[in-house]
Amino acid sequence: MKKISIHETLITRMAAYRGQQQQIARDTGLSQSTVSRASRGEGSPTLIVAESILDWMDKQDALKKRRLSAGRIPPATPRLRKKREQNNAHQGDFNNLAPSAQAHA
Fold first, then answer.
1. Burial, 54: exposed, middle or buried (Cβ in 10 Å; 0-12, 13-18, 19+)?
2. What is the DSSP letter of 16?
3. 40-90 pLDDT per residue, tens
4. The pLDDT value given to residue 8
5. Which of 8, 35, 36, 103 is least enclosed, having the fewest CB within 10 Å?
6. What is the per-residue pLDDT for 24?
7. Mean pLDDT of the chain, nearest integer
8. pTM exceeding the 0.70 threshold for the entire prediction
9. Could you tell me the residue range of the domain that residue 98 belongs to?
10. Helix residue ranges, H only, 1-105
11. CATH number at residue 18
12. 52 sits in which H/E element
């Protein structure tokens, strides 16, 4: 099994939170430059820095799961929006066919 360093894990996971460095810094109490350096893989973050950022991401992931399980719809990305539109179009086709199918039954 390949060993993955905390630093590699941090860089990989931070890619999902691109553009949220200021929020991470504010919530963790770290400086924005420290968070930025960690996300770019510059230097070697201390264990406290890596742990703070990873804990923040774990909390965000848990919040996202709770929102999804509560039935809230996540914000639509262009790809997701297109898929929803396609599904709605197919659902509309089915709804249009449903009354005639009932008449034949």
1. middle
2. G
3. 888 888 889 999 999 999 999 888 888 777 666 666 667 777 777 777 776
4. 86
5. 103
6. 94
7. 79
8. no
9. 75-105
10. 6-14, 21-28, 32-40, 47-69, 78-104
11. 1.10.260
12. helix 47-69
Q: Which two tokens stand for residue 100?
A: 């005639």
Encoded tokens for 46: 């201390």
The count of C-alpha atoms lying within 13 angstroms of the C-alpha of 45, restricted to the half-sphere facing its C-beta, is 27
* Chain centre to alpha carbon of residue 40: 19
CA–CA dist 62, 46 (Å, integer): 24
Helices 32-40 and 6-14 pack at an angle, to 10 degrees, of: 100
Q: Are residues 29 and 12 in the same domain?
A: yes
Q: How far apart are CA 78 and CA 23, in angstroms?
A: 24
Q: Dihedral of the CA atoms 50, 55, 61, 64 (nearest 10)? A: -130
| Spatial separation of the C-alpha atoms in residues 104 and 44, rounded to whole Å | 70
